[in-house]
C-alpha cells in the first residue's frame, strides 16, 4: 500500500517535471505535481485512502525536509544582510495585502451567502 502511494505521489511529481520541461514555465515541478495529484484526487482517479497514510507520515517528517533548505540560506547571509530592509518591507507589505484581500474576500463571500439564503427564504414564503 505504501509503495503504491509512493508511486502515485512521485509519479505526479515526475509528470510535473515533464510539464515544466515541455512548457518552460518558471514554476517548481513539485507544485505542478501537487496540482496534478489534487486533480487526480478530485476526479476520483486516485482514492484518498491510497495516499493518506503516506501523506501523514511525510507531514510528520516535514521538518527534516525543511532543515536543508534553511541551512542553504545560511550561505547567503551577506546578501540577506545587505538587503534586509527591503526584505522586511516586502514581507510586511505582502503580509498586509494577504490579510486585507483574505478579509475582504471573506466579507464578500459571506454577504453573497447571506443574500442567497435570504432569497431562498423569500421564495419559500411566497409559495
UniProtKB/TrEMBL annotation:
Gene Ontology CC: one annotated term: plasma membrane
Keyword list, A-Z: Cell membrane, Hydrolase, Membrane, Transmembrane, Transmembrane helix
Entry annotated with the keyword Iron-sulfur: no
Annotated localization: Cell membrane
GO molecular function: hydrolase activity
Residue ranges crossing the lipid bilayer per the database entry: 5-24, 30-46, 58-77, 83-101
Pfam families xref list: LrgA (PF03788)
Coiled coil stretches, renumbered: none
Signal peptide: none
Keyword Cell membrane belongs to the record: yes
Record InterPro entries: LrgA/CidA
Protein name listed in UniProt: Effector of murein hydrolase LrgA
Organism: Moraxella caprae
